[in-house]
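Posting this for the archive.
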Amino acid sequence: MTTAHVPTDIEIAQAAGLRAITDVAADLDLTPDDLILYGQHKAKVRLESLASRPRKGRLVLVTAINPTAAGEGKSTVTVGVTQALRKLGHKVVLTMREPSLGPVFGIKGGAAGGGYAQVVPMEDINLHFTGDFHAITSAHNLLAALLDNHLHQGNALGIDSRRITWPRTIDMNDRALRSITIGLGGPLGGVPREDRFVITPASEIQAIMCLSRDMDDLEARLGRIVVGMTRDQEPVRAEQLKAQGAMTLLLKDALNPNLVQTLEGGPAIVHCGPFGNIAHGCNSVVATDAALRVADIVVTEAGFGADLGAEKFFDIKCRVGELNPEAAVVVATIRALKLHGGAPKNKLADPDPDAVERGFANLRQHVENVAKFGVPTVVAMNRFLSDSDEELEVLRRGCEDMGVDVAMCEVWEKGGDGGIELAEAVLQLLEGKRAQFEPIYDTALPIREKVQLIAKEIYRADGVTFMPAAAKAAERLERWGLGDTPVCMAKTQYSFSDDAGLLGAPRGFEITVRDIYPSAGAGFVVALCGDIMTMPGLGKTPAAEKMRVAKDGTIEGLF
């Protein structure tokens, strides 16, 4: 007896019959004149075409428990619940981040949803798409080139080459570029100095793109970027290098959000892609704003678990974008809860209600955290065939004890039909109008107090240890006028703590902050915690090894 073939994500995407993007746009009352077309199935929406339309949509956030090797499927659920809401007759738009090539070729192999809950054309979105990441990379490296040219041409600004903080960037996992030496080769090779690369999703320009409201705001933010310090430890900004105009030129098209579609033909806006562990992990303000102007319901997601993506969505993006989220979905799987409860990785398919009960503490803490922002929540259980009735009952009972609804979600297998229960639960939250959204801290607090508040309220840490470099940086940033900004916590996504091995809901730990650096153009400061790195490496078996283009041009291995 042969086993039935289970289609891969890319096979499902390639078999889909896509609508013309102009028809998708028409569902949102957008005409071809409102679009910049990139072939038949992709387009950018001209921001100026939306300026006169008022916001009318209601905003729903999808977040999750701390990710595990067992998988949670947050992006898949985000797409699936959007498809379900459309099936129920609602004018709904999905807004997501663009995938980064580094994880696509490293671990994930793709980041456009999965199964029958995907955004398409999947191959384009996961690869070069409309060139946004390339534009960001080019603008970032233009500033780096102008900076080094300034040093070579006499250094009129008195920049201390030992205190340059602006790195270079590439959208690929490459650990060999974490620390490099440049300017070698004699007088014509520039000024020798140490340098480094970050991956493009960690570039401050990626964050700036995400938080800019329009072209003027973009140029102003680019000018405020801090590239290093003088010998007197005063900040040197991109505007002093006269870089912001040319950088804006490279980004002028990329600022327009991208319109694509779900597998079921509904509109999806996919734009920008900062990581949630080393950046603020949300798609762009202009994408979400555009969706709110053309739809009745907008579903968006934030990177990794709610301790990172959701906290930054609420405390950073919602502040900047003047957004009012009215409901949240926290995604979990029985398998992941068992892993958080101490079950071995090779036993996750075996029924283990006790492990689910122990792991439920992780889910509980995330739900409690979302509630602290005044946003009502439903738990989405992304169901696997191996989930037993007894394990599901543990989950239902735990949610009932918290006073939170739980909805089964089977969108990977069934598309929108598998998300109807979750969609109806989201609608109940919106109809109840219970949201009273507020960020969790006042930006006027000193930097160290904001870090401590996040660590204690969201992570449940006993306290924060600031390494000497971090303590000095906090004082310096406040002296530079960057004290009254949100804080972007850069830490492991796998745990509430800064130790990736502490699963569940750990207690009795402290967060260690190694450094705090400015993201002045984006409008926040970044607290670097634990051993988090801004340039990932490839694993022993990169996803790239399984990818190829067949003779007929079909892409294979982009799962």
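The chain is about 35% helix and 20% strand. The radius of gyration is 23 Å.
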